[in-house]
Every structure is written in structure tokens, then in C-alpha cells.
Amino acid sequence: MNANWLDQLAPERAPAPPGWWPPAPGWWVLTALLIGVAIGAWTWWRSPRRRLRRATLRELRKLRAADVTTGETAQAVQNLLRRYALAIFGQETVARLNGAAWLEFLAQHGAPNFGGGVGRSLLAACYGGGAAGADRAGWFAAAETFVRRAVVPSGRSMTPRAARRRGRTA
Questions:
Q1: pTM, whole model, 2 decimals?
Q2: 5 falls within a domain
Q3: Closest CA to 140 of 83, 78, 54
Q4: Is the residue at 55 inside a domain?
Q5: Of 18, 33, 111, 160, which residue is least crowded by CB atoms under 10 Å?
Q6: Is 145 a member of any domain?
Q7: Number of domains the chain contains
Q8: Average confidence (pLDDT) per 10 residues, the chain, 170 residues
């Protein structure tokens, strides 16, 4: 046998390093998944119902921080709740409600505190001028509860009128 047969072999060469393009199928799947999650999160965040809720809660916080009389606060809370309910439940359902019927509606649709003394004190301060037994903290707590828990009628995310105002077709 020839002792230098190893010298006759070709020199050692490492294979070329792998390129970064095209990525492996797992990276394509991960990219598609991340894009889908981003689009889903953006859609969820921009939904008209959530935007309306956030705007209402923001206005409620401003009212809580405002330095106004009890009667003005009661009227502002009442008007804010009425506007929110009109946008969510529609004019046919909410527009004609007043007094005890309005408080019962609020209690049935997410704010049970309005069914008791808190609701009566809100109406008394708002319309009767009875600010003596006003439960200002209770109004805000019940209003926030209503905004957060308002049960939207099934099959409809918001009224057709509110959808048209936001540039969507009914």
C-alpha cells in the first residue's frame, strides 16, 4: 500500500454558510400569526362600542374631578348616562323613559344601584333641587358600573344612527 494516499485527496473545504433568505416555513407561520394578532388587536381596540365606552368613562372621570354644584353634577351625570344609553340601546328604547322607569331601565341593564336610593337621590338633585341627601360618590360608582356592564341587545353592536355617524353603513 501507498503510505501517502491521504496526500492525494482534495483539500478540506467547509460547506457554504446557509443564506438568510428564504426563511424556513416556521418563520413564515410565525410572521403570519403576528400579523394576524396585530390586526385583531387593532380591530378590537378600534371597535365603536369600546371607543364609546372609553370616551364615556373619560368624561365621567372629568365630571368627578370638576368643581361644580351638586345639582350641576347630577344633571351632567344624568345627561351622560342618557346619551350613552341612546347610543347603545337606541332612541326607540330610551328616549321616552323618565323618572322611575328610567331608573328601572338603568338597574335592569347593568347598574342595580340606580334602583335604590342612589337613583332617587340623583333624580331629586337633578330635577327637584334636593341636594341635601345627595350621594355624589354613589352616583359616579353606579354610573361607571352602568357604562361598564350595559348589556347590548343581541344581534346589534350599536344603533344604526350611531353607526352612520361614525361613517359606517347601517
A1: 0.70
A2: no
A3: 78
A4: yes
A5: 18
A6: yes
A7: 1
A8: 77 87 92 97 89 94 91 93 94 91 92 88 83 80 94 60 51
